[in-house]
Amino acid sequence: MKDLRSTDATHREQHPIYLQRSPKAGVARNSNQQCAFGRDLAPAPPNVPAELCIRVTGRAPHDLSRTSLCVIDLLLRGDLSRLRSEEVADHLHVSPTTLRRRLRADRTNYQHILDHVRQYRCRVLLDKRWLPGKSVAWDLGYAEVNSFYRAFRRWTGQNYSDLKTLYL
Contact 79/114 with Cβ under 8 angstroms? Predict the structure, then answer.
């Protein structure tokens, strides 16, 4: 008769490790719910300024869907010249149609959020110091400086060139 322990040890050495039983198979999981890759299963909702949420949808952040909060957060942190609704939907692992439907449930759309995020980022940029219109337009993702000037006039009711006199 063969010794089963020696056969089992030989068997383990011949097969890759993924076929072996894990020594921690019966150990209970931590209470902080993590998946096998070490990521949280339910990540915390994005930290979005309440004032921006109220401007975009007229509702506080805790009343918005996670999708809307994630879109606002991505636009606040991302490169606005490259982020299109399709890329945002891909990042959120949903189709563009699903993204539109979820934003519509919050009574908003991607372009509306983008416009308010641009306005918010413009205010943050210009709170510190005056910058040339071309650099602000570039930072906000406008392809044309004149598009930024029109948007600035729509947001504030005054021309961007008038702003320079306030700083000088």
Answer: no
Q: If you average pLDDT over every residue of the chain, what do you get?
A: 79
CA 85/CA 102 separation, integer angstroms = 13
DSSP 54-84: HHHHSS-GGGS-HHHHHHHHHHHHS-TTT--
pLDDT at residue 18 is higher than 50: no
Using an 8 Å Cβ cutoff, are 43 and 70 in contact? Answer: no
Count of beta carbons in the 10 Å neighbourhood of residue 122: 21
Please list the residues that pair with 40 across neighbouring strands: 34
Report the C-alpha gap between 10 and 7 in whole angstroms.
5
Q: How far apart are the first and last CA of the chain?
A: 96
Q: Where are the domains of the chain?
A: 50-160
Rg of the chain over Cα atoms, rounded to whole angstroms, equals 26
50-160 falls under which CATH superfamily? Answer: Homeodomain-like (1.10.10.60)
pLDDT tens-digit profile of 65-113? 899 999 999 999 988 888 899 999 999 999 999 999 999 999 999 999 9
Dihedral of alpha carbons 40, 33, 98, 75, sign: negative
Contact 98, 89 (CB under 8 A): yes
pTM: 0.70
